[in-house]
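Hey L., structure's done. Input below.
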Amino acid sequence: MRPVVPREVRDELARAAGWLSRGDAPRALESASRALRALSGRRLTRASRLAVQANVREVIDALASHPRLAPLLTASGRGRGTIPCRPGQETTLASVLLGIARILREEDAALAEVKAAPERKKALIESGLQCLREGQVKTGTDYLRRVTVEFADEPDIFSQMGRLLSAAGLHREAALFHESAMQAHPRASEGYAEAVAAWLKAGEYARAETVFLAILRVFGGHPATFARMAAMYADWGRAAEARDMAGRALAEDPDQPLAATVLAKLDGHAVADAADAEEGESGVQSAPAWGESAP
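Output:
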């Protein structure tokens, strides 16, 4: 009697071979899995079973030699280019093939996500910036915050968004992003420096001072840090703290230029105050105060 291969088994094996020829390993595995499940429990003549097994073996060997499956088979200890296919174990093998198909689909999904990520990030940023240009600050900031959530694996993602906000003149919002960078990467100095700069541009000296104090706790004192704090206190109108910080900077680095400039301007301000006291009597105009431009 001529061997008979069940139609469902034959069709699924043919589909598996077709998908494999197109390079679609997951679909080929799924079709082969369905063929094995259709074969399981079938009562066949010896000749028919041998014919079916030969067809199955051909497809399984083709799958095993596919370059995407070889690493998985080697990792599982099955050996390169082999998938055991024993009579009576069709259901077990069907489950194995389906599991491999799922792994490959997960890999495909992850790869697609990686490829789509730059466009997704670009779209979110463009939407955020458009809202900012239209004066919708909260909505625009929310878009940029979404970028930090979806791309949290990028180490400087908060700083990237903070810089965009600073470029848009939204220094307070930028500073909050930079503070998030500080929290995410407490040993990275860039977030602290950019947070200070943003708070100062926003005119929020108390918030800048808080970040400066955090810098001193985490990284220790440095003449440049003390000098920048001196400049902040001077702009803030806190001359005593400005002198103290400038003095600390110059004690460690006598050539620290910013600290020297702060002290010189503070001394000039003191001279101007003294001149103001005499102006009522002499009528002489005083020197420009801190932060003012000379005529």
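The chain has 13 helices and no strands. Residues 72 and 100 are 8 Å apart (CA to CA).

-- N.
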